[in-house]
Structures are given as C-alpha cells and as structure tokens.
C-alpha cells in the first residue's frame, strides 16, 4: 500500500469513529488500534478467568444450596465472559493460545483486585457488590466502544455483571440483617475490599498513560478519576442501607462539588500488587499455568481424535 | 399397626429413598464444583460447572420435597448440610476424587449412564413429584451423558497417553458400578409401593450401553469379579469425611444462621 493509500484508509477510519460507526475485524485499522485492542480485550478476558479463582474458592463451602447454585452460575458466567472476550480478541489476528502464553509468562496483566484472597463468605458478597459494581462502571461505556466485537460482547457482559452485583449486595444485606457475628463478617469484608475496589479504576488521571488515545477511540469515555468518583458516590448510600461503615475517616459529602470527598489511596500498595507482589499474585498465576499444563494431554487427545474422525469421514465418502 | 404408624414408616422410607437418589447428585455436584476454574479448556470448564449446577438444582428439588414430607421441622439445607456421614446414602462411585481429567470423566460417564436410565424409569413412578423431577432431570442428564461419553471416546481413541489414562480410570472405577444396582430395605418398600424404580432390572441395559461406548472408544470393558459397596447403607470411603468437612463448614461453624 502506498503512503497515499494508507492516508486515505486512515481518513476513512477516523471518519467512521467520528460518526460512531463500528470498526469490524475485516475493516482496515491502524496497527496501533489493533495492538491497543488486543491488549485491553485480552487483559479483560484474563481478568474474567483469573477472577473465577477467588470466587471458585467458595463453591465447595457455600453456606446454603441456593447460594451454592448462584455462585456456580456466577463463576460460570465469568468463564463465558472470558470465552467471548477471547473470541473477540481472536478476530484481531491473535490466537487464544498466544493470549494464554502472554498471561502465563506474566507479559499480559489482569485486574489486580483478584490478587486479594477471599477468606470469609462475606468476601463473596463484597466482591459482587463492590468489585462487580466497579467493573460495571468501567464497562458500561464500552458497550458503545468503536470496535464492534468488543462492544457487542460488552452488552452481554454488562447485563450479567449487573445481576452479579445485585446478588452480591443481597448477600451483604442478608449478613447485615443477620446475627452480630454475620454483620461483623460483612464489615470486615468491606474493610478489606473497599480500597482495592477504588484502585480498580487505575492510577489518577495525571499518572494514567493511555487515557488520551483511548478517549479518541471510545475505549474510554470518562477518566479514571471521574469513574472512581462515580463509584464512590453510588456506593456510599448503599453502605448506609447496609448499616456498615466505609473505612475512610475522610469520607464526607461536599455540598459545593456535589460529590463525596475521600481519603488518600495507598498507591504504593497499588503498584506493589500491579508489579506482582500482592497477596495472591503468585498463586493465581501458578493455578492458571497448572490448569493449562495439566490439560495439555487432554487437548492433544481431542485434536488427534478430531483428525481421526475427519479421516474416517473422508474415507467413508471416497 | 395404626394408620399413623404406617404413614410415618412410609414417609421415613420415602425420605431414605429420596436420599438414595439426591445424595448422588449432591456429592457428585460437590466433586465437580472442585474443578471450576481448573479445566483443561475454558469450554470444558464451563460444561462441567454447568453439570454441577444441574445436579445441585436437582438436589434442591429432591430436598425441598423431602423436607415437606418429613414430620420434623427441617429445610432443604438441613438435609444437605447437617446430616452425619453415616446418614448420607450416595453410592461410592460419586465420592471418588478428581485424580485427573480421565478420572473425573470416567466417574461422570459411569454415573450418567446409570442416572439416565434411572430417570427414564422414575417417570413411571406413582409419586407425582418424583415424576415431575425426573421429567426435568432427564433433559439435563441426556446432555451430561452425551458430554461424558464424547470425552470417553476422545480420550480413549485420542493419543496413546490419553488412551492409557482413560483405560486406567475405567479399570479403577469399574468396581463401584455394581453398587448402582443394589437396593436397600427402604428402596424395596418403595418399589413395592410403585414409587421407586427397581434398579436391579436396569443392570443389563446399563452394562450394554456403557460397553458400547467403551468399545467405540477402543477401550477394554473390564472383567471384574469383585466389586465395592457400602455407600447406599451409609458406609462410605475415607474420602467422604473430607468432602463433608468442606461442604458443611459454614453450617457447622455458624449454626442456625440464615445466609
């Protein structure tokens, strides 16, 4: 392609984005757009499947049949999200195996929140309420992002996430209406999950490296700080209904701003976990790698069997 | 015997009969739940979690019904989580551990084929609730059976390694299949009443169906003289205590609370 042709393609591409038209896998796209999307969509897919682990941790111990069924369904939904996000990513010309390799080698990231341990049943409630709540705020704008397969996947993801969020809140509500022991369990979970949830929106705007370009491509509609504020404003009244206290002594309503002011986030902790030194980083990755390696003979068998079946079909026809 | 005594012995046997079916789904569902997030592929992970989900759904229907029949004030969760080990009446097969993927598939396969013919027959029960549960369950189980049979074929007729692993799993698990066709006293009472299924009569069909799949999978049908039994009378393997410890953890640690 000549330089002029590339320029022309770029102009068409930019126009499409400006017109809110979708970019589809077979459309021409700048290499940077492709790479950025592979990075973001795969990071999102990895987060879904790593996210299965802290919650899957409680499937065998769920306190009632109803909760067990709901938790199984939720973790299964996450696997489903992973599946269609990997598929969306594959349309950009990368294989699922390559994406897994990037995760397993530590090259690709996943949401840091899943590097915290789930140590009580209330953590399952808190994750639904706070972590899925934060995820929805991050993800709703993506339903209208420019890359078609991603946008369509996100429509379904968001519907299911919003169901998970209500489910998590309902677990918290049941605990808070239960015995003092149960309420204490809920408070303890909020204490541990609050700050990591705020960190889910990423570094502050002045430290965020991808914002400007992502805004242009509609991968982002609001900045990290705006989304974080939205989450806090939405969550504080929910905690009040539960009757538990958000662990931030600086949290208070600011009449002038029309928002809650909040305390300082421990960014050292954030970077420590992002860099691989959180409480569960090593375990999570090891678990994924083990599942993949131990499954190798199974995948090999399935491939060989499929080849044999195809051969048999050919022989039958001829 | 007064009619009240007669009724209470009927409902006692009925509840035991329900345990005999429901506990299989409960313990197998629990075993499958251990695998969520650890599957060899994402698709397999989703499928096996889904099977677990189906099994727990069935458990809820059975235990809600058993709780209703019981003259004690109990809930589905009391029945699922608060019995002692000797009171669980599942077969030994379903409590066997997830040693590797071939074992998990082998266990599923040997159970699904039984479950399918049991649910087919249970639809002829004189008990309307059991009929309704069986009608819903059979749809799920026919999918489970297809899933596990397909994997037995893939692994059996796949690579040399997978063939060997699948054969070992079937050889090791085969000794638990005979118990599927045993009946307890409660089972016999329910069969007499036209409520229960006489599983003794399903044995031949079961081995025929299972053998067909194994042959297609290029696997040997084991020829065993000695089998294991006990689960149906509450005498379990050493695995069972650990399964229950985990499953009952919350209910035992925080007695009497709502979740």
From TrEMBL, chain A:
A Pfam match: PaaA_PaaC
GO biological process terms, semicolon-separated: phenylacetate catabolic process
GO molecular function list: phenylacetyl-CoA 1,2-epoxidase activity
Gene Ontology CC annotation, any one: cytosol
Signal peptide, first to last residue: none
SUPFAM superfamilies: Ferritin-like
PANTHER family: 1,2-PHENYLACETYL-COA EPOXIDASE, SUBUNIT A (PTHR30458:SF2), PHENYLACETIC ACID DEGRADATION PROTEIN PAA (PTHR30458)
Protein name as catalogued: Ring-1,2-phenylacetyl-CoA epoxidase subunit PaaA
From TrEMBL, chain B:
Alphabetical GO biological process terms: phenylacetate catabolic process
GO cellular component, one term: cytosol
Domain of life the protein comes from: Bacteria
InterPro entries (alphabetical): Aromatic_CoA_ox/epox, Ferritin-like, Ferritin-like_SF, PaaA_PaaC, PaaC
Protein name: Ring-1,2-phenylacetyl-CoA epoxidase subunit PaaC
Species: Psychroflexus halocasei
